[in-house]
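Q: Please design a sequence for this.
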């Protein structure tokens, strides 16, 4: 999926479990499975799993800022694959802009 497709899916009531934008914030900042990403444990072979490139607090703040900004999304047809590092940079920018 492209970053635009992921973004649009997050705010599409038909594909996100019927969550409105406030519910998306609650899900992204409180759901146990989402929060597990910051304490992912180890692979079956014992190798540690990688956590996201942003802190949990940064992710929560960026999620709120994104929703408060109207949940803008890139064009889903752009075809550009999701880039976690770019997403982290955008989240940091949004967090700084909201301060």
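A: Design:
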């Amino acid at each position: 999926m492209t970053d635009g497709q992921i973004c649009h899916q997050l705010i599409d009531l038909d594909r996100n479990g019927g969550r409105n934008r406030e519910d998306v914030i609650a899900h992204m900042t409180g759901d146990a499975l989402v929060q597990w990403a910051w304490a992912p444990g180890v692979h079956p072979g014992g190798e540690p799993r990688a956590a996201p490139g942003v802190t949990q607090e940064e992710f929560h703040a960026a999620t709120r800022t994104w929703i408060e900004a109207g949940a803008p999304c890139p064009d889903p047809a752009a075809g550009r694959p999701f880039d976690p590092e770019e997403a982290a940079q955008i989240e940091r920018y949004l967090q700084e802009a909201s301060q």
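Q: Thanks. Anything notable?
A: The two ends are 31 Å apart (CA to CA). The chain has a mean pLDDT of 88.
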